[in-house]
Amino acid sequence: MIGRLAPPWDRLLLDARLATLRDDLGAYGAIEEAALAWKDGLIAWAGPRAELPGAPAQLAARVDSAQGRWITPGLVDCHTHLVFGGDRAVEFERRLQGASYEQIAREGGGIVSTVRATRGLDEDALLAASLPRARALRADGVTSIEIKSGYGLDFDNERKMLRVARQLGEKLGLTVRTTYLAAHALPPEYAGRPDAYIDAVIEWLPRLQAEGLVDAVDAFCEGIGFSPAQTRRVFDAARALGLPVKLHADQLSDLGGAALTAEFGGLSADHIEWTGDDAVRAMAAAGTVAVLLPGAFHVLRETKLPPIAALREHAVPMAIATDLNPGTSPLQSLRLAMSLACTHFKLTPEEALRGATVHAARAPACTTVAGCCPASAPTSCSGTSPTRPNWPTGWAARPPIPCTSPAAASATEVSFAGNDEAPPRRGFVQARRDARLLGGSGLLGRSLLGRGLGSGDRSLHGGGLHGRRLLDGLRTGIAVAAGETLALGGLLVAPTHGDSLESDVR
Ligand SMILES: [Zn+2]
Fold first, then answer.
1. Which of 81, 129, 368, 464 has the smallest number of CB atoms closer than 10 Å to its CB?
2. pTM of the entire predicted model
3. Could you tell me the distance, in angstroms and rounded to a whole number, from the CA of residue 10 to the centre of ligand 1?
4. C-alpha 96 – ligand 1 centre gap (Å)
């Protein structure tokens, strides 16, 4: 072996179909007959197989076939409230009997009832209550999650929520971005004194930021929440600390929330059912993402649609999220949210896929997307792979596809999950703390090939211009700026129709 050069890559995946979501490559940014290569846990090459710089066997220590499966970026849930205590099942019945969200809130239900339940749990109990929800999202193909506080509404309990959010990311190998949402509702102890409460919200913020618990700042700007003037005070405080802002804006009425967010160069304006054309133009100019939350729209049986046509006209990026919360959107599937966005908001499946990946990654300043979901064996099952890369949208009720088990993922010799020798394994990719990600919390999932997918490493091996451009497409698809180096995230691989549905999600 002396003198013989090792192949440049660790693994090479052939016979893949890539949905890069690059604008200049047509629908879905699709590449048929694609190849994807890894080196040291980093994507080293991606592009048309015909442009590989040599024979596969000389290029990688191991060559596998994706057997024609579609590969998309991992999903990003960019708006969740998944850390909470209790439930609000009774409200669903109340609403079906005719009570409005505002009525329920004014009767002491709604957000404040969740605050009571959340305050009643210590940190361990709150973590235990929240873990199954994060696992459900993870099992659904989500690799990065934005998690908000906002059910504590005092310093200790907001802190507790944010600490639990961080722990969820660490425990489950997910990239988590935390958002400080103390301006979510007025706690009972501040009844009648909203401005005094905003003073407190502003006073807590730097202390929590100093603990590394805050990635962004949010507020509920609404008649039953906080006024635009109060929201502006919170935003001013965030800006002074260098923190990005986002907003629950124009959900039940048009208070100018989206325009206010744009004025602050906010990451995203979320809900925005009542947002007008002028605000949409302001969002476009500011680069503010429109986060659509069809789960809340569905559960609240809203009829006022967000301004989809205007968003398209002004090329405002549309993201989709679950808004996972105990009251208005107890949705634990981002793919279901994608499907609802298609049926309720008339998004195209391609818009939905972009909305849950490339655009979603911008909303929480989520610079990295970890993980992947390898497909399972087509040969031992009855079906074939989906023929279009819209499978996450179209198969709303179907769980995603087997991920390599943590044990398998740690072994470099793990085979592509789902060939004949290695039956599909389930579980989820583990974060690689040592991954060479630049910036952010640096979580990186181990890939379907047993190694991490993606990185901030800009040095590419071979590939030529086309490969580089494609790789950049994949990379920017799931990466964002916010002062951090671009980093590639995880990928999802389409299931086959015959995949079994069992799951051993931990
Ligand atoms: Zn929300």
1. 464
2. 0.76
3. 42
4. 21
Q: pLDDT tens for residues 376-393?
A: 222 222 233 455 666 555
List CB contacts of 165: < 8 A, sequence separation 6 or more.
83, 147, 149, 176, 178
CA 218–ligand 1 middle distance (angstroms):
9
Structure tokens at 368: 């990295």
H/E element holding 493?
A: strand 491-493
- CA 319 / ligand 1 centre spacing (Å): 14
Interval between CA 126 and ligand 1 midpoint (Å): 19
Query: Phi first, then psi: what are they for 147, rounded to 5°?
Result: -130, 130
- Spatial CA neighbour of 14 closest among 33, 29, 40, 42: 33
pLDDT tens digits along 401-435: 433 322 222 222 222 222 223 222 222 222 222 22
Q: Say how far apart CA 139 and CA 129 lie, in whole Å.
A: 17
The residues near 193 (Cβ < 8 Å, ≥ 6 apart) are none
Ligand 1: centre distance to CA 293 (Å): 8
The span from the CA of 42 to the CA of 385, in Å, is 26
